[in-house]
Amino acid sequence: MKPLLIRGGRVIDPADGLDAPRDVLLREGKVAAIEKPGQIRAKDAEIFDAKGLVVAPGFIDIHVHLREPGQGYKETIATGTAAAAAGGFTTVCAMPNTIPVNDTPETTLWMQAPERCASARVDPIGAATRGSMGETLTDYAALKDAGAVAVTDDGKPILGDAIMLEALRAAAAVGLPVIQHAEDTRLTGGCSMNAGVLAFRLGLRGMPVEAESGLVERDIALVRRVKNAHLHVAHLSTKKALDAVRAARKSGLHVTCEVTPHHFALTEERIGHYDTNAKMNPPLRAESDRAAMIEGLLDGTVDAIATDHAPHAAHEKEQEFDRAPNGITGLESALGLAISILHARHRMPLSKVLALLSSKPAQTLGLTGRGSLAIGLAADVVIFDPAEQWVFRAADSRSKSKNTPFDGWQMQGRVKLTVSEGRVVFRA
Amino acid sequence: MAQTRATIRTAQKVSGPSFFQQPIHPLSAISVNDFPVAEVRRILRSADALEKDDPLRRMKHLAKRRVALLFYEASTRTRTSFELAAKALGADTTLVSSLSSSIEKGESLKDTGITLKALGAECIILRSPYSGAPYVLARATGLPVLNAGDGMAEHPSQALLDLRTMLQFLGMHAGAIGEKCLRGVTVTICGDVLHSRVARSNALLLPRLGAKVILCGPPALLPETAAAMGPGIAIERDFEAALRRSQIVMMLRIQAERLAGLELDADEYRNRYQANAERMATHAPKALVMHPGPIIRGMEIVSEVADGPMSAIAQQVANGVPVRMALVARALATLKGGRR
Q: What superfamily does domain A4-55+378-427 belong to in CATH?
């Protein structure tokens, strides 16, 4: 692998507060040097001219569905991570709702094997209970040894108080976070969108806000009872649940949360005439909830932007709204949405946007050696133009699936080069 | 050599608009909101004209045109009247129902639509248990789709025939339809509003013609949010108070098939919301009583009322045929003065 010298860029490394013109040398898969422009000599290196571009740590998405094993027609680890690379992500955390469910060290290792041809690092998240059935805990120590970075039954919440308490205890003992898909499914049977007047008008059953916030509140109460427990709330979507997380944190509990780009970019109105590319779980909410997500991102309550990238085949989405599966792709539109909405519209400093995409998610799931450009760390780098206006086209996506509500959206901020462990995995 | 080169083109991704960006045929009838007030007037005037038309002459309007009826749910009134309407205009009709077709084998709505189009269907009349299904069919086929009821969402042809029934009761002609034509008229819709597509279509249409709509029913079947669905809609939980303010009352069946585990005390429901003889005589003796059917006698309505002098239930059914003739004719663009 030839060394890569990135010259003349604006280097932003939120982890150590750096935001200045710097040259960056990547050698043997590591960050080898960061110096003032013109200071690095590396005759053997390929040179990338980053003038006018931002050079930052590769993004980390702690919530993606890569669909392998079992549903390669929607996505494979190869195509999903290719999409990740195109979106500037160099690490993705893969949810365990595969077929079979990733509840064993074997599957966890299989997902990380070189034969998967990944363009980004894949950090699997193991199932919290066997088969994600919510009954028997999996072997957290063994999953962790195999590379799992957290446990969850994502898609299926851990409903029972006793089993959730057990999961928090077992995870705390081995130092893993428990990620909860917070949805009290006893309140959401047959529901396909947010509860409210629009659901009534469309004749669809609505998920009440309380189905999310109620479970978050229950989980927080359980966290209080377990020493060193870490609860991470996946794809938080309601003001009420966010308020609960904020209060828990103030009281000193280790509770973190993530928000998806679609929950800070869109409201339930996007459903229009039953567009299933606006159907996901948790559903798009009301404007007041969307505004609360922005506020939580701005005030630091939200720890990470995570996409919940959930590819589905066209034939699955081109159906009646109630029959279509939940989820949208998100890896390639995340940066554009974050810059357009958080930075350009809400004046969030670029370094803060990048922190939410790299250093903070790394910190949230305890991914060491990632999310920063410190010398000696993995050469995971994204180079993007923060000002470029472009139109996102689903048809151009590297993902196997094109189920996005952002097709045709004008966006600001475009990835130019992505380097994963020293290897160029995406070039615009 | 030059020729060969000319035929080689750079590989380009050719992508048309995605499925959800496909246009909906403008002569579809999926929601009552598809019709501006003037269009409502044109449709009901056309219904009048087609009804009066000589049956043999009428046969020529759509002679040998192909209309498909695609029914994923049971139906008596709607299916029969759409079929009779299309046939009265001379069209060939074919009925595809979920129990006797490849739908049973798992064929999707999209593929069923493509198949019907390939067989020559020029318009599809769809009933589906899924809200929004007509949009899927319209996008998949590009054909005009007439919504014969989709899930809990809408039933626009029912709202139009209900309007025709109301105008007849009020002694008004279709030509009088305008934004204020129902000013001073209050219509109470009582019962299982939550699950009712008829209630939604009526509640969205009638205020646009100047009427006031009162929704009535227990909270479990009528959430507070219903009133925010559109202008001119209010909620009144006291059925008798609603009756006293109403010129027209529309009773709804409790849709047991859509209750999804909800449990209701039937006796309590009858006590509070049933249209019985004494209640009607005391609180709204002159009100027109409507019901989209099927009626459950002894539950939301009793026989004395359903069969009584103020009942318009059979008349509503009869109005189904001319109104649906107008919608089918419009879909196939033979409606005089209609949009092409």
A: Urease, subunit C, domain 1 (2.30.40.10)
Contact residues for B63 (Cβ-Cβ < 8 A; gap 6+): B90, B91
Domain limits, chain A: 4-55+378-427, 58-364
Cα B258 to Cα B68: distance, rounded to the nearest angstrom = 27
| A25-46 average pLDDT score | 96
The answer to whether the bond into A69 is cis (omega within 30° of 0) is: yes
Measured distance CA(B193)–CA(A51) in Å, rounded: 62
Mean pLDDT of A125-144: 98
Which of residues 388 through 407 in chain A touch B, CB cutoff 8 A?
393-396, 402, 407
**What topology is assigned to B21-156+320-331 in CATH?**
Rossmann fold (3.40.50)
Same fold, A4-55+378-427 and A58-364: no
Q: Which residues of B touch A277 (CB under 8 A)?
A: 20
Per-residue pLDDT of B242-290, as tens digits, reads: 999 999 999 999 988 777 777 788 899 999 999 999 999 999 999 999 9
Question: Which site among A197, A209, A320 would you substitute to test the B interface, given the most B Cβ atoms closer than 10 Å to its Cβ?
Answer: A320
pLDDT at B84: 97
Q: Is the pLDDT of residue B337 over 90?
A: no
- The catalytically annotated residue of A308, A380, A385, A396 is A308
pLDDT, tens digit (0-9, with 9 covering 90-100), for A313-323: 999 999 999 99
Domain boundaries defined on chain B = 21-156+320-331, 157-255+264-317
Kindly report the CATH class assigned to B157-255+264-317.
alpha beta
Instruction: Specify whether A396 is catalytic.
Output: no
HEC per residue, chain A: CCCEEEEEEEEEEHHHCEEEEEEEEEECCEEEEEECCCCCCCCCCEEEECCCCEEEECEEEEEECCCCCCCCCCCCHHHHHHHHHHCCEEEEEECCCCCCCCCCHHHHHHHHCHHHCCCCEEEECEECEHHHCCCCECCHHHHHHCCCCCEECCCCCCCCHHHHHHHHHHHHHHCCCEEECCCCCCCCCCCCEECCHHHHHHCCCEECHHHHHHHHHHHHHHHCCCCCCCEEECCCCCHHHHHHHHHHHHCCCCEEEEECHHHHHCCHHHHCCCCHHHCCCCCCCCHHHHHHHHHHHHHCCCCEECCCECCCCHHHHCCCCCCCCCCECCCCCHHHHHHHHHHHHCCCCHHHHHHHHCHHHHHHCCCCCCCCCCCCCECCEEEEEEEEEEECCHHHCCCCCCCCCCCCCEEEEEEEEEEECCEEEEEC
B136:A318 CB<8 A: yes
Q: What percent of chain B has pLDDT over 70?
A: 93
Q: Above 80 in pLDDT, residue B7?
A: no
Region A58-364: CATH code: 3.20.20.140
Q: Does A317 touch chain B (CB under 8 A)?
A: yes
CA distances from B310 to A12, B75, B184, B281, B319 (A): 77, 25, 20, 11, 16
Residue whose tokens read 């699950």: B195
Query: What's the distance, Cα to Cα, between the start and end of chain B in Å?
Result: 50
